[in-house]
C-alpha cells in the first residue's frame, strides 16, 4: 500500500455560514490535490476526508473524533467554538490544532499552548493592523487616534469578542473612544445597531462579522448613509461573498487581509488551474479559484502541509508523520521567501518562521478595499506591534495555564 | 409466542408495581445493562465511545428532563438549552472558584442552579399555557444566551466568554479516558433514570400527567396546579442542568454559550416528541434518533452511493442527509404519531399475540 | 314497512375494523339500511356501535382505525375509499358521539358551518330557521361560543349542525345523550318528521332502547363487535331477552332501579 | 322505606351566577342532608352543572354562600373543597386521557398521599408502602365497578360508557363525604344504568356517602333519589321528594312534559 | 427627539417585516391548529426559488428585461410553492388528520429539514440576490426641524406597504369568502369538520398555498434586503414573539404584534442596551411578549383559551 498522509477536513458547506465556508474548503482541498499532483510531500501522497460540521460545535467534535481515528496529522477546526473544544482534546490525542487566522489569540504562546498553531496571524494581529491602518489614514502614527470614536460591530460570540481586549488596550494607550456593538447570531437584524451608529457618528466602524452578518452590515451602512470608506472589516469580513451582492453599495469598504488577498494572478493559482482544474478534478467552480476565501483555504492547507514537510526533514523524508512529529514540524516552520516562491506563493505572503515560544510566526497584514468589482490592496504591509501583543498574549496565556494548573514548557521540552 | 406474560401471575401489588413487571422485560433489561456496563466499554472503539455514545447518553439524560416537563406535565418548553447552560456555567463557577470542589458536588450544585432558574421561568406557566408558554421559555433561552455572553463574572472574566475545565475526578478516580467518561455518564443516566421512573409512576408523576391532560379536572380532585407545575419545572430543570454539566464538562471540555443555543432547545424538544411524549424510554430512543441518525446517514450515504456507482460530494451528502432525516421523521410519525416508544410497545403487543394477527 | 321492500341505501357487508393495527374491534358486521328507513343499532358499552358508524362515514382514519375486511356500499357504490367530505356530498352525515362542537365558534357559526357543502344563501337561511324551530333553546344561545354552552345545548347544536347539510342519510350516534326527557322526545319526533316528510334515512346508535325501538322500523343488536340479533323493531321489543337487558323490564313491569340487586349477572348471547 | 337523614351537610344559600348577560343561576338555595341522595333536575341549560361547579370551586358565584358542615366558603378553590371531602364526576368526560384506568383512579387518592417528592423518587420506605396501600384501595374500586380487564388500558381508548365508570371510580377513590355526580348515566343502556344505580346506592349505603345527582332519566331519579331540586333557567322551581316534584305543575310544564 | 422618532420609525418598519413572516404562522395555525415550524424554511425556500429563477429565466429565454424576469420568477416561485403545498398535504397532513398538536408540530419539523435539503440541492447554498429594484439609499426628512433630520429607508417603507396590503387582502379574503369560518372549524376539531363535509385536503392545500405565497413575499422582501441565504430561515425566530403577542389566530394581531415588538426591541436596544452591554433586543422582544401574555394569556387578539368542565 502506498504511503499516505491523512488530513482530516472539517468544513461547512451547509447552514448559515455555507457561502463563506464553501470557497475556503474548495481552496483547501484543491491545494492538497495540487500537492499530490506535484508528487506529494517527498513522495508521500496526501489523503483526506471531508466532514460537514455545519459550523456546529457538537458536530465538529464528532467529525474530529471520527477523522482522528484515521490517523490525523493535524486538524483545522474552522470555527472558534470548535477550536475551544478541540484544544482541550488535542494534548491527549496528540494532534496539533492548526488555526490559520482564527481561534484563540493567546494560543500564539507555544510554551503554554503546545498543540495550538495560529500560524500567520491571530485576531489581535488583525485588530492591531486595522488600528494602524486607521491611524495612517488619519495621517500618521497611532497618536492620531486620540479623541477619535471607533465603533466595533461584532458577532456576539467568542469569535467576535476576541479583538476586544486588544482594542481596549490600545484605547487606553492612545485615548480613542471605543464603542462596543454586539450583533446576535446570525446577524440578519442590525437595524438598532446602525441606528446607534447613526446617532453616535463614530469616526470609524470596525466590523467583526462572519457570513451574512457582513453583507447585512454593509447594506445597513448604505441604508443609514454611513460612509463605507470608514469601515474596516476583519479578514473574515473581507471576501467576495460579503460584498458581491452589494456591489456598488460596498464601494470603498475596507478589510484587513491575512497577508493574502484575492490572488488570481499568483503562481499557485495558475498551478491549481493547470494541474487540477484542467484535469477536471477541481473542487469548486473555476472562476472562484483565487478569490479571497479560496486563497485562505489554500494557504491554510499549505501551512499545515509545510509543517509535515518540516517534520519529514527531521524524522525521515518520505515517511508518514505522526501527529507528534507534525507538531514538531509546525513548531519549527521556516518558510523563507525562496521556499514560498517555489510553492507558488510569491507575492501572496511573507516569510514565516515559528518557534517554541511563538506559534504564530508572523504578524503581517495588509488592507484591501472593494472597488465595486473586486478587492484591491490599498495599503502597504502592516506589522502588528509586538510591544502591545506580546504582553497581552503572555498574560492571557499565563492565566489559562494557572487555571489549568499547567506547567510552562521547559526549554528541554522545546527541543524535543 | 415469545413474548407473553401468560402464566406470570402477580400475587401482590408490590410485584405488579415493579418497574418491569414482565419477566421477559427484566431479562432484556438485565442483558442490556450487562452490555452497556461491561461489553460496550470492552469492545467499543474510541470513536464510538467518545463521539457517539457519550453524547447520546448525555442527550438522553437531557431529553429525559425535557420529557418530564413537556411529556409528563404538558408544559411546552423551548428553554431547555438555557437550563443546560445554567447548569454548566453554574457548576463551572463552583468548580473553578472553590478549591477542592468535587465533580459530583459541582454536578449537583449545577443542577440546583438550573432548578432555581427553571423555577423562575416556570412561574409564568401558572398563567400562560400551551404554545404561548413557549414564549416564556424562549425568553429564558435568549436571556441565558445573552447573560453568559455579557456578564463576565460567570465566565471568570475570560475575554471570549468561553471557559474550560480539566482534571475531572470522581472519588479520586480520574475521568479522563473515554471509558471512564462513558461509564460516568452511563452511571449518572442510570441513577437519574431510575429516580425519574420512580417519580413518574408515583403520586407526583400522576399529578403531572393529570395537569397535562386536564388541569381543571385535576384541580377538582385536589391537585394543586401550582405545586404540580413548579415541581415539574424543578425536577426537569435539575435533570437538564445535570445533563448540561456533563455536556460541558465531559463531552466538550471547553465551551461557549453557543453550545447551548436555541438549536439545542429545539433538538431536545424534537427528541421527546419523536421518541414519545410521556415515556422515559421514549426520551432515550428519541435521543438516539436525533443524535445518531444524522451521523449514521452521513457515513452511510457515501457507501450506499458507492454501491450504485455514484459519487456524491460532501454537500450532496449533507443535503441528502437533511432530506432523508426529514422524511424519516414524517414517516415515523405517520406510522405512529405517539412516537417511537409507542411504536415499540405496539410492536411488543403484536409480539404478544404472535403468531396470530390479532 | 319492512326492511326488504325498499331499495337498500347502505349495505355493510361483513366488515372488520382494527384500531392501531392491533385492536380488532368489529369482527364481521353486516347490516342493511333501506331507503327511507330508520334503523337502530343497539348494544352495550363497547359493543362497537360507534365504530360501525365511523366505518360508514369514513371517520376511522383519524382514530387510527381501518376497515380490513368486508365492504360498505352506498346505493350500490363502494365507499370505503371516499373521503368523509365526498360522503357528505353524497348526503351521508354523521352526528358524532360526544358532541364535538367547534368550541371557538358560536352556536350560529357552528350551524352555518354545517351547511358548508351548500351554496344557496336563501336555502341555508331557511334551514337555519328550521333548526331554530326544532331547538328554540339554540336560538337564545346563538351568539355564545359553543364551548360555553351546557352539555345538552351542545348536543342540540351537533344534531342541528348535521341537519344543516340537508342530508339524505344521517348516522346518529347517541342523539339522546344528555338531553332532557322532553327534548329527547322532540329529537325523535324530528327524526320521524324528517323521515316521513323528506324521506331522510336514519341509522341510529342509541342506548335509550325503548325510545329507539319505538321510532325505528328495524333494529340490530350488537355485542362484542358482532351483530347478535336483528329484526323488525316491533319484534325486538317483544323479545324476552331484549326486554330484560335493554328495556329493564322484569316480566311486564319496569323494574325499579332501586330494586335491581343482582348486578353481577351478565347473561349474554355470546359466551 | 326512607332512611332517616342526618343533619345538613351542604347548604347552598342564595347563589347567583351569571356569565356576561347569561344568568346561569339566580338566587338558588337548597340543602343536602347527610346520607341522602339528592337529585338536581331541569331542562338543558338550566344551570345544573353550573351549580355543581359553584359547589366545588370551579366557578365563583357572584352572590350567596355555600356552607359545608357549617363552614362557609365563597372564595374557596377547588383544592380546598376537595380537601373537605367533596368528590365529583363530570358531564363531559374529564378524564386524564393519556393515563391508564388504574392511574386515573389513583389520582383520586392523591390527597391521601403524604410522602414527599424525594421519598417518591427513591421509592423507599413509606413511599413504597403508601403506594401499595393506595393501590389496594383502588383495586377495590376497580373490582366494585367491574373494570378489571381494562386496568392498564389508556382511558382514551375505552368506549364512552366505561369512561363514565372510570370517572366515577376516580371520584370514589377520594373517599368523599359528598359525591357530586353530573349525569353519570348518560350514554348507557338500561342494564348498565341498573348497574350504575347499584354502585351509587351501594356507596351511599356502605360508606354513608351523601350523593348529589344530576340526571335526565326520570326513571332513575324517581327510583333512587330521596329529594329532588328542580331548576329552570337559573331559577329553582321545585324542591321535595320525587313524588312531590312529580306532582308539581311548574315542574311538569317546564321539564317533564306530559308523557311522564 | 429626532433620534427617538427615527428609532421609532425603524422599529415600526422592522415590525412590519416581522409581521409578514408572522402572517404565515397565523394562517396555518388558523386553518389546522398546527404551529408550522416550517414557516422559516418556506421563506427560505421561496426566496431561493425566486432568486434563482430570476437568474435562470433570462438564461433560458434570452429575455433581458429585469422586470419581466422578476415577474416570471415570482410566478414560477409561486408555482413551486403550490407544488410544495400540494405535496405537504398529500404526503403528510392527510395522513395525520386528528392527531395531537405536538405530533403535527413535529411533522412540520420534518418538513423543515426536507425543505432545507431540497431547497439547497436544487437552488444551491451560496448567497443569491433578489434585485427587484428596491431603492437602497436613505432619504433624510425634516432636517430643518431636527438636527440631522430623520432618516427614512425607502426600501423599508415600500416593504411595509406591501406587507400592509397583503394583510388587508388576506383579512378580506377570510372575511368575505366564508372560508374563514371553515378554517376556524377545522382548527377546532378535524374530525367534526370532516363529518360535516369540509374537505380538509382542499382546505389545507389552499391554506398552505396562501402561506407559501406569503412566505414568498416575505422571502422576496427580506431577500432583497439581506440577500438570499440559509440564515433567512432564522427570521422565523424573530417573528415568533410577534405571532404569540398578537395571538396565534389573528391576522391583524400579527400586524399589531409586529409593530409592538419592532418598536419595543429597537427602543430597548438603543436606550437600554448600552447600559448593559448591548445585544438585548432578542430576549427583550420575548420578555415584552411575555409581559403582555401575563395580562392576556391568549395574546392581544387571540381567541380566548377555553378551559371548561
Ligand atoms: N381510538 C380507539 N383506539 C383503540 N380502541 C378503540 C378506539 N375507539 C374504540 N375502541 C375500542 O373499540 C371497542 C368498541 O368501541 P365503540 O366506541 O365502538 O363502542 P360503542 O358501542 O360505541 O360503545 P358506547 O355505547 O359506550 O359508546 C371498545 O372496546 C373500545 O375500547
Ligand atoms: N363558563 C360559562 N360561560 C358562559 N356561559 C356559561 C358558562 N357555563 C355555563 N354557561 C351557561 O349557563 C347556562 C347553564 O349551563 P349548565 O351547564 O349549568 O346547564 P345544565 O343545567 O348543566 O344543562 P345540561 O342539562 O344541558 O347539561 C347555559 O345556558 C350555559 O350556556
Ligand atoms: Mg359509542
Ligand atoms: Mg350539565
From TrEMBL, chain B:
PANTHER family membership: ABC TRANSPORTER PERMEASE PROTEIN (PTHR30482:SF5), HIGH-AFFINITY BRANCHED-CHAIN AMINO ACID TRANSPORT SYSTEM PERMEASE (PTHR30482)
GO cellular component: a single term: plasma membrane
Location of the protein in the cell: Cell membrane
Taxonomic source organism: Ramlibacter rhizophilus
Keywords: Cell membrane, Membrane, Transmembrane, Transmembrane helix
An MF annotation (GO) of this entry: branched-chain amino acid transmembrane transporter activity
Protein name as annotated: Branched-chain amino acid ABC transporter permease
Record membrane topology: Multi-pass membrane protein
Source lineage: Bacteria, Pseudomonadati, Pseudomonadota, Betaproteobacteria, Burkholderiales
Superkingdom in the source lineage: Bacteria
InterPro entries, per database record: ABC_transp_permease, LivM-like
Transmembrane regions listed in the UniProt entry: 27-45, 51-70, 77-96, 102-123, 130-149, 179-196, 233-254, 266-297, 317-335
Keyword Amino-acid biosynthesis: no
Automatic annotation (TrEMBL), chain C:
Domain of life from the UniProt record: Bacteria
Record-level Gene Ontology MF annotations: ATP binding; ATP hydrolysis activity; branched-chain amino acid transmembrane transporter activity
Gene3D superfamilies: P-loop containing nucleotide triphosphate hydrolases (3.40.50.300)
Keyword ATP-binding: yes
Residues of the ABC transporter domain: 10-249
Pfam families: ABC_tran (PF00005)
Keywords: Amino-acid transport, ATP-binding, Cell membrane, Membrane, Nucleotide-binding, Transport
UniProt-listed GO biological process terms: L-amino acid transport
Family: Belongs to the ABC transporter superfamily.
Stated name of the protein: ABC transporter ATP-binding protein
TrEMBL record, chain D:
CDD domains linked to this entry: ABC_Mj1267_LivG_branched
Presence of keyword Cell membrane: yes
Annotated GO MF terms: ATP binding; ATP hydrolysis activity
ATP-binding as UniProt keyword: yes
GO cellular component: plasma membrane
Domain of life: Bacteria
Residues covered by the ABC transporter domain: 10-258
SUPFAM superfamilies: P-loop containing nucleoside triphosphate hydrolases
Keywords: ATP-binding, Cell membrane, Membrane, Nucleotide-binding, Transport
PROSITE patterns in the cross-refs: ABC_TRANSPORTER_2
Xref: SMART domains: AAA
Protein name (Swiss-Prot/TrEMBL): ABC transporter ATP-binding protein
Organism encoding this protein: Ramlibacter rhizophilus
TrEMBL record, chain E:
Biological-process GO terms, alphabetical: amino acid transport
GO cellular component: plasma membrane
UniProt KW keywords: Amino-acid transport, Cell membrane, Membrane, Transmembrane, Transmembrane helix, Transport
Listed transmembrane segments: 12-29, 41-61, 67-92, 104-128, 157-174, 203-222, 242-263, 275-295
InterPro entries membership: ABC_transp_permease, BCAA_transport_permease
Gene Ontology molecular-function annotations: transmembrane transporter activity
Membrane topology, record value: Multi-pass membrane protein
Keyword Iron-sulfur belongs to the record: no
Keyword Transmembrane: yes
Signal peptide boundaries: none
Pfam families membership: BPD_transp_2
Cellular localization per UniProt: Cell membrane
Protein family per UniProt: Belongs to the binding-protein-dependent transport system permease family. LivHM subfamily.
Protein name: Branched-chain amino acid ABC transporter permease
Amino acid at each position: 500500500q502506498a504511503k499516505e498522509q491523512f488530513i482530516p477536513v472539517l468544513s461547512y458547506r451547509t447552514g448559515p455560514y455555507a457561502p463563506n465556508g464553501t470557497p475556503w474548503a474548495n481552496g483547501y482541498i484543491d491545494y492538497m490535490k495540487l500537492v499530490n499532483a506535484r508528487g506529494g510531500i517527498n513522495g508521500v501522497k496526501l489523503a483526506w476526508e471531508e466532514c460537514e460540521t455545519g459550523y456546529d460545535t457538537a458536530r465538529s467534535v464528532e467529525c474530529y473524533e471520527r477523522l482522528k481515528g484515521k490517523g490525523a496529522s493535524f486538524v483545522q477546526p474552522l470555527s472558534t467554538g470548535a477550536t475551544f473544544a478541540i484544544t482541550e482534546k488535542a494534548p491527549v490525542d496528540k494532534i496539533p490544532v492548526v488555526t490559520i487566522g482564527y481561534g484563540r489569540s493567546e494560543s500564539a504562546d507555544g510554551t503554554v499552548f503546545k498543540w495550538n498553531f495560529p500560524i500567520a496571524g491571530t485576531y489581535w494581529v488583525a485588530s492591531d493592523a486595522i488600528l494602524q491602518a486607521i491611524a495612517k489614514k488619519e495621517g500618521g502614527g497611532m497618536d492620531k487616534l486620540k479623541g477619535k470614536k471607533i465603533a466595533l460591530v461584532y458577532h456576539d460570540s467568542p469569535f467576535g469578542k476576541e479583538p476586544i481586549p486588544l482594542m481596549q488596550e490600545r484605547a487606553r494607550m492612545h485615548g480613542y473612544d471605543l464603542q462596543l456593538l454586539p450583533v446576535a447570531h446570525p446577524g440578519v437584524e442590525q437595524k438598532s445597531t446602525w441606528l446607534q451608529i447613526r446617532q453616535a457618528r463614530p469616526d470609524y466602524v470596525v466590523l467583526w462579522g462572519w457570513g451574512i452578518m457582513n453583507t447585512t452590515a454593509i447594506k445597513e451602512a448604505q441604508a443609514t448613509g454611513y460612509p463605507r470608506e470608514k469601515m474596516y472589516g476583519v479578514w473574515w469580513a473581507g471576501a467576495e461573498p460579503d460584498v458581491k451582492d452589494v456591489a456598488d453599495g460596498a464601494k470603498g469598504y475596507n478589510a484587513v487581509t491575512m497577508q493574502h488577498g484575492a490572488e488570481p494572478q499568483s503562481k499557485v493559482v495558475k498551478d491549481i488551474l493547470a494541474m487540477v482544474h484542467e484535469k477536471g478534478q477541481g473542487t469548486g467552480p473555476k472562476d472562484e479559484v483565487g478569490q479571497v476565501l479560496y486563497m485562505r483555504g489554500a494557504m491554510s492547507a499549505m501551512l499545515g502541509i509545510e509543517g509535515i514537510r518540516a517534520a519529514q526533514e527531521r524524522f525521515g523524508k518520505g515517511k508518514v508523520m505522526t501527529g507528534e512529529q507534525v507538531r514538531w514540524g509546525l513548531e519549527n516552520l521556516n518558510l523563507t521567501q525562496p521556499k514560498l516562491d517555489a510553492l507558488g506563493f510569491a507575492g501572496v505572503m511573507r516569510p514565516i518562521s515559528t518557534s517554541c515560544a511563538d506559534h504564530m510566526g508572523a504578524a503581517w497584514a495588509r488592507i484591501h478595499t472593494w472597488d465595486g468589482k473586486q478587492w484591491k490592496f490599498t495599503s502597504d504591509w502592516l506589522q502588528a506591534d509586538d510591544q502591545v501583543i506580546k504582553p497581552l498574549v503572555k498574560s492571557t496565556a499565563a492565566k489559562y495555564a494557572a487555571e489549568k494548573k499547567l506547567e510552562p514548557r521547559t526549554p528541554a521540552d522545546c527541543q524535543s | 409466542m415469545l413474548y407473553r406474560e401468560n402464566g406470570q401471575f402477580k400475587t401482590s401489588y408490590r410485584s405488579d408495581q415493579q418497574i418491569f413487571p414482565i419477566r421477559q422485560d427484566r431479562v432484556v433489561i438485565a442483558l442490556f445493562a450487562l452490555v452497556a456496563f461491561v461489553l460496550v466499554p470492552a469492545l467499543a472503539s474510541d470513536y464510538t465511545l467518545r463521539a457517539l455514545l457519550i453524547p447520546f447518553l448525555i442527550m438522553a439524560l437531557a431529553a429525559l428532563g425535557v420529557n418530564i416537563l413537556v411529556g409528563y406535565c404538558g408544559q411546552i418548553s423551548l428553554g431547555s438549552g438555557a437550563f443546560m447552560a445554567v447548569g454548566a456555567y453554574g457548576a463551572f463557577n463552583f468548580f473553578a472558584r472553590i478549591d477542592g470542589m468535587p465533580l459530583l458536588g459541582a454536578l449537583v450544585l449545577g443542577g440546583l442552579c438550573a432548578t432555581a432558574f427553571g423555577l423562575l421561568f416556570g412561574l409564568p406557566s401558572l398563567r400562560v399555557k400551551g404554545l404561548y408558554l413557549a414564549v416564556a421559555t424562549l425568553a429564558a433561552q435568549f436571556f441565558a444566551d445573552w447573560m453568559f455572553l455579557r456578564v463576565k463574572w460567570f465566565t471568570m472574566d475570560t475575554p471570549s466568554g468561553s471557559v474550560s475545565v480539566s482534571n475531572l475526578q470522581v472519588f479520586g478516580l480520574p475521568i479522563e479516558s473515554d471509558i471512564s467518561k462513558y461509564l460516568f455518564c452511563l452511571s449518572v443516566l442510570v441513577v437519574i433514570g431510575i429516580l425519574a421512573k420512580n417519580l413518574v409512576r408515583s403520586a407526583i408523576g400522576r399529578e403531572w400527567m393529570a395537569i397535562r391532560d386536564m388541569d381543571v379536572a385535576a384541580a377538582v380532585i385536589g391537585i394543586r396546579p401550582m405545586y404540580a407545575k413548579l415541581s415539574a419545572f424543578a425536577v426537569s430543570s435539575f435533570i437538564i442542568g445535570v445533563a448540561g454539566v456533563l455536556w460541558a464538562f465531559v463531552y466538550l471540555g471547553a465551551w461557549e454559550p453557543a453550545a447551548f443555543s436555541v438549536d439545542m432547545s429545539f433538538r431536545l424538544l424534537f427528541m421527546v416528541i419523536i421518541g414519545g411524549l410521556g415515556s422515559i424510554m421514549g426520551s432515550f430512543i428519541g435521543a438516539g434518533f436525533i443524535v445518531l441518525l444524522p451521523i449514521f446517514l452521513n457515513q452511510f450515504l457515501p457507501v450506499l452511493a458507492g454501491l450504485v456507482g455514484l459519487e456524491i460530494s460532501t454537500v450532496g451528502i449533507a443535503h441528502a442527509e437533511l432530506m432523508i432525516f426529514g422524511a424519516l421523521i414524517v414517516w415515523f410519525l405517520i406510522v405512529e404519531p405517539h412516537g417511537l416508544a409507542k411504536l415499540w410497545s405496539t410492536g411488543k403487543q403484536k409480539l404478544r399475540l404472535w403468531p396470530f394477527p390479532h | 314497512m319492512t326492511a326488504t321492500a325498499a331499495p337498500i341505501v347502505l349495505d355493510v357487508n361483513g366488515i372488520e375494523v382494527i384500531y392501531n393495527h392491533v385492536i380488532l374491534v368489529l369482527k364481521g358486521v353486516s347490516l342493511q339500511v333501506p331507503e327511507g328507513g330508520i334503523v337502530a343499532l343497539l348494544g352495550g358499552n363497547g359493543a362497537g356501535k360507534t365504530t360501525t358508524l365511523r366505518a360508514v362515514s369514513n371517520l376511522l382514519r383519524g382514530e387510527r382505525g381501518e376497515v380490513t375486511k368486508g365492504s360498505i356500499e352506498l346505493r350500490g357504490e363502494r365507499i370505503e375509499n371516499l373521503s368523509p367530505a365526498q360522503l357528505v356530498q353524497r348526503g351521508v352525515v354523521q352526528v358524532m358521539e360526544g358532541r364535538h362542537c367547534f368550541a371557538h365558534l358560536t352556536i350560529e357559526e357552528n350551524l352555518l358551518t354545517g351547511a358548508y357543502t351548500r351554496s344557496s344563501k336563501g336555502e341555508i337561511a331557511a334551514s337555519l330557521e328550521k333548526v331554530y324551530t326544532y331547538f328554540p333553546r339554540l336560538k337564545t344561545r346563538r351568539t355564545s361560543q359553543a364551548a360555553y354552552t351546557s352539555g345538552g345545548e351542545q348536543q342540540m347544536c351537533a344534531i342541528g349542525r348535521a341537519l344543516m347539510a340537508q342530508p339524505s342519510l344521517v348516522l346518529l350516534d347517541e342523539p339522546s345523550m344528555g338531553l332532557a326527557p322532553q327534548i329527547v322526545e322532540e329529537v325523535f319526533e324530528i327524526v320521524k318528521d324528517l323521515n316521513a316528510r323528506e324521506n331522510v334515512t336514519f341509522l341510529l346508535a342509541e342506548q335509550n332502547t325503548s325510545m329507539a325501538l319505538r321510532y325505528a322500523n328495524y333494529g340490530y343488536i350488537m355485542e362484542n363487535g358482532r351483530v347478535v340479533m336483528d329484526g323488525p323493531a316491533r319484534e325486538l321489543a317483544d323479545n324476552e331477552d331484549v326486554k330484560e337487558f335493554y328495556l329493564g323490564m322484569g316480566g311486564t313491569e319496569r323494574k325499579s332501579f332501586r330494586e335491581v340487586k343482582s348486578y353481577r349477572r351478565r347473561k349474554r348471547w355470546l359466551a | 322505606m326512607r332512611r332517616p337523614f342526618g343533619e345538613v351537610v351542604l347548604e347552598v344559600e342564595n347563589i347567583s351566577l351569571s356569565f356576561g348577560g347569561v344568568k346561569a343561576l339566580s338566587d338558588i338555595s337548597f340543602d343536602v342532608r347527610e346520607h341522602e341522595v339528592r337529585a338536581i333536575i331541569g331542562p338543558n341549560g338550566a344551570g345544573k352543572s353550573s351549580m355543581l361547579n359553584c359547589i366545588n370551586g370551579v366557578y365563583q358565584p357572584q352572590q350567596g354562600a355555600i356552607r359545608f358542615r357549617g363552614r362557609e366558603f365563597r372564595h374557596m378553590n377547588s383544592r380546598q373543597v376537595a380537601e373537605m371531602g367533596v368528590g365529583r364526576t363530570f358531564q363531559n368526560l374529564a378524564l386524564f386521557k393519556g393515563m391508564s384506568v388504574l392511574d386515573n383512579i389513583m389520582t383520586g387518592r392523591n390527597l391521601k398521599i403524604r410522602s414527599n417528592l424525594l421519598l417518591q423518587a427513591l421509592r423507599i420506605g413509606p413511599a413504597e408502602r403508601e403506594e401499595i396501600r393506595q393501590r389496594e384501595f383502588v383495586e377495590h374500586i376497580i373490582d366494585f365497578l367491574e373494570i378489571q380487564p381494562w386496568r392498564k388500558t389508556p382511558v382514551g381508548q375505552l368506549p364512552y360508557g366505561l369512561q363514565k365508570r372510570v370517572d366515577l371510580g376516580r371520584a370514589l377513590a377520594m373517599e368523599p363525604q359528598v359525591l357530586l355526580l353530573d349525569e353519570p348515566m348518560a350514554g348507557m343502556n338500561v342494564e348498565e344504568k341498573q348497574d350504575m344505580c347499584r354502585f351509587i346506592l351501594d356507596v351511599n349505603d356502605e360508606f354513608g356517602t351523601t350523593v348529589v345527582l344530576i340526571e335526565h332519566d326520570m326513571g332513575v331519579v324517581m327510583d333512587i333519589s330521596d329529594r329532588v331540586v328542580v331548576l329552570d333557567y337559573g331559577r329553582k322551581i321545585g324542591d321535595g321528594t320525587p313524588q312531590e316534584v312529580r306532582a308539581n305543575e311548574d315542574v311538569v310544564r317546564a321539564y317533564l312534559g306530559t308523557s311522564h | 427627539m429626532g433620534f427617538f422618532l427615527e428609532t421609532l420609525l425603524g422599529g415600526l418598519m422592522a415590525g412590519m417585516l416581522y409581521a409578514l413572516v408572522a402572517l404565515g404562522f397565523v394562517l396555518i395555525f388558523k386553518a389546522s391548529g398546527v404551529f408550522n415550524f416550517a414557516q422559516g424554511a418556506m421563506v427560505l425556500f421561496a426566496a431561493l426559488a425566486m432568486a434563482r429563477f430570476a437568474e435562470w429565466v433570462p438564461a433560458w429565454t434570452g429575455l433581458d428585461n429585469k422586470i419581466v424576469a422578476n415577474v416570471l420568477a415570482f410566478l414560477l416561485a409561486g408555482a413551486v410553492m403550490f407544488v410544495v403545498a400540494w405535496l405537504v398535504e398529500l404526503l403528510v397532513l392527510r395522513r395525520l388528520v386528528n392527531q395531537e398538536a405536538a405530533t403535527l408540530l413535529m411533522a412540520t419539523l420534518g418538513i423543515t429539514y426536507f425543505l432545507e435539503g431540497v431547497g439547497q440541492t436544487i437552488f444551491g447554498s451560496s448567497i443569491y440576490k433578489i434585485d427587484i429594484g428596491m431603492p437602497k439609499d436613505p432619504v433624510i426628512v425634516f432636517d430643518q426641524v431636527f438636527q440631522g433630520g430623520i432618516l427614512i429607508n425607502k426600501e423599508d417603507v415600500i416593504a411595509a406597504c406591501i406587507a400592509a396590503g397583503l394583510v388587508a387582502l388576506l383579512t378580506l379574503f377570510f372575511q368575505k369568502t366564508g372560508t374563514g369560518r371553515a378554517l376556524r372549524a377545522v382548527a377546532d376539531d378535524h374530525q367534526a369538520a370532516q363529518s360535516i363535509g369540509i374537505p380538509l385536503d382542499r382546505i389545507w392545500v389552499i391554506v398552505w398555498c396562501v402561506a407559501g405565497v406569503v412566505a414568498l413575499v416575505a422571502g422576496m422582501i427580506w431577500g432583497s434586503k439581506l440577500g438570499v441565504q440559509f440564515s433567512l430561515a432564522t427570521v422565523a425566530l424573530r417573528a415568533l414573539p410577534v405571532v404569540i403577542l398578537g395571538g396565534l389566530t389573528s391576522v391583524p394581531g400579527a400586524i399589531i404584534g409586529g409593530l409592538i415588538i419592532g418598536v419595543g426591541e429597537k427602543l430597548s436596544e438603543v436606550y437600554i442596551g448600552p447600559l448593559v452591554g448591548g445585544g438585548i433586543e432578542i430576549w427583550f422582544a420575548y420578555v415584552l411578549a411575555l409581559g403582555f401574555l401575563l395580562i392576556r394569556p391568549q395574546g392581544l387578539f387571540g381567541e380566548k383559551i377555553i378551559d371548561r368542565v
